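Posting for a labmate who doesn't have an account.
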Amino acid sequence: MSEAISDDVLAGHVLEWRREEGWGVLASSAVPDEVWAHFSAIQAEGFRELTAGQPVTFTVEQAQQDQFHWRAVSIWPGSGPLFAPGSEGGLGYSSGLDITFDS
């Protein structure tokens, strides 16, 4: 496993979410262990929570949090950002729109 993993934006999913306590567990094939996640790391407006099975993208750091060796730094529900923070492209998003006009 590369040490650069903490700078990468990883694709994964939510294993469990404890709504009342505001934390949960994420998984990604790019991280050897489960990842502890706190609601404050979710990049969204309003009440922030996740649901089990939900796809997410996230960044991590190595940390001792309860029995976990990894902690989520930023979490984007769904597909999230296309570029890692600080990368050449910066934090960015992409979208597409096809418009068809009737004559």
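Reply:
Got it, the structure tokens are right above this. Confidence is low (pLDDT under 50) at residues 82-92.
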